[in-house]
Design brief:
This protein is mainly beta. The protein has a domain at 1-54. The chain contains no helices and eight strands. A four-stranded antiparallel beta sheet has the order 1-2-3-6, with no helix packed on it. A two-stranded antiparallel ribbon has the order 4-5. The protein starts with a strand and ends with a strand.
Length: 85
């Protein structure tokens, strides 16, 4: 079983008449339970950008862009020096 949680902070959201897209920052954590052989925690941080467009006043199109940096906070093993970096 995996437990998941996330929090989102909308920096600029809901001003659809303005020519500025909506921005939000989201952080998430997933934790795997139910086994004693694997312990895994996955974290993520991303930036969400979207802009709503009306289509003939009957529908809407809202493209969404998600930017997620690729980083790893775990200590890495340096095999040349036999030390943690």
């Amino acid at each position: 079983m995996a437990w998941q949680s996330y929090a989102k902070f909308a920096i600029h959201e809901g001003f659809h008449d303005w020519p500025v897209p909506s921005f939000a920052v989201r952080g998430a954590v997933s934790y795997l339970t139910g086994t004693n052989q694997v312990g895994m925690t996955v974290t993520s941080l991303d930036l969400l950008i979207s802009k709503r467009f009306g289509l003939l006043k009957t529908a809407r199109l809202e493209p969404l862009c998600r930017l997620e940096p690729d980083f790893d906070l775990r200590p890495q093993w340096n095999s040349r020096r036999n030390t943690l970096v």
